[in-house]
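Board notes, transcribed. Complex of a protein with zinc ion.
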Amino acid sequence: MKVLEGVFVFFAIMFLLLSAIFFIAAFSPFSLDILVEAVVLLLIAMVFFFLYYRSEKMEANRPVEVYQDVNISTSKDLAGEAELHDLKCKHCGATLTAEDIKITDAGVIVKCPYCGAVYRLEEEPKW
Ligand SMILES: [Zn+2]
């Protein structure tokens, strides 16, 4: 993206200088044709400046999106703990703590420290 911005700025300045030369040429002696060409070159320069401005704006917006991704993954991690509020062993009814739960690839595994029951917790689609 940085390379592209450099290219935009380069072309914008090139066309700006070129149009400046055409403007000078158009008035010595005055020539409408050259003046029109100078205006066209100026417009092209403006387009490149606009492209540069837009790509810079997109660049500025990008970190926000990254932060959103981080937030989602963080809330995923915390969802397991948030779920523990009223989590009880489905065998003996004892209140379970975070240490009694292991999150594995197979799912959330509960190991009750009171009755020794080990079972997989059905994932609640809270997140
Ligand atoms: Zn139990």
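The beta strands are 101-104, 107-111, 118-121. The first helix runs from residue 2 to 26.
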